[in-house]
Amino acid sequence: ILNVEQSPQSLHVQEGDSTNFTCSFPSSNFYALHWYRWETAKSPEALFVMTLNGDEKKKGRISATLNTKEGYSYLYIKGSQPEDSATYLCAFHSGNTPLVFGKGTRLSVIA
Amino acid sequence: GAVVSQHPSWVICKSGTSVKIECRSLDFQATTMFWYRQFPKQSLMLMATSNEGSKATYEQGVEKDKFLINHASLTLSTLTVTSAHPEDSSFYICSAATGPPGSPLHFGNGTRLTVT
Q1: Around Cβ B78, how many Cβ atoms within 10 Å?
Q2: Residues sharing a CB contact under 8 Å with residue A8, sequence separation 6 or more, in sequence order
Q3: Which of A1, A4, B55, B104 has the fewest CB atoms within 10 Å distance of its CB?
């Protein structure tokens, strides 16, 4: 059974703070690592699909890094805003199995 | 683009009845759709992969006779929970990809099912 772990489970930060959280996944049979943002009462929205070791992707104030050899990815948010409040999901794809999701990190940004 | 519409958003039904959940791709054709279930404080768990024009592929432990999936067109997949019981109460959400395996998924808004 593939295990995808996300930490922390939840996080409260002040507006303007930068923050980061972790996704750990199996280091073997890697194909892709997905990040999604899931706001309350909305559908999950894809942020990044990462495929190469050492990859770093950026979308506005959000960026992500990938280390496939040690099996982790970090998601960074610079200067958090209240609208960044959401659950951030990562999902691991081994290529021959469906996406396996972590439980998510729930971020609350306090104004 | 790539909008997925899921209906209903929530439903309450009595034990023993059946409930149908619809998932539509509004602006693209989806040959494959995925049905997930999420219990409280748990991760999204894939239940089945819905293939247009053919039988769905169910994950281990998911009863295909209880969770009927129909994908009769390139824009519509349905999940029917038959003879629902309280333990089927959960959050069900569908998704589809617009590219090859590994492409980002586009999700519906999900359906909160409560069986009384």
Answers
A1: 19
A2: A21, A105
A3: A1
Q: Which residue has the tokens 């693209």?
A: B28
Which residues of chain B neighbour A98 with C-beta distances below 8 Å? 34, 46, 49, 59
Long-range contacts at B100-103 (CB < 8 A, ≥ 24 apart): B101/A93, B101/A95, B102/A31, B102/A32, B102/A49, B102/A51, B102/A93, B102/A95, B103/A49
Report the C-alpha gap between A75 and A55 in whole angstroms.
Answer: 12
Q: What is the pLDDT of residue B98?
A: 83
What is the per-residue pLDDT across B43-74, written as a single tens digit (0 to 9) for each? 999 999 998 888 999 999 999 999 999 998 99
**Encoding tokens for residue B32?**
């494959």
CA B110 to chain CA mean position, Å: 8
Among A99, A100, A105, pick the best mutation site for testing chain B contact (most B Cβ within 10 A).
A99
Closest Cβ opposite residue A98 in set B42, B46, B108: B46
Q: How far apart are CA A84 and CA A19, in angstroms?
A: 11
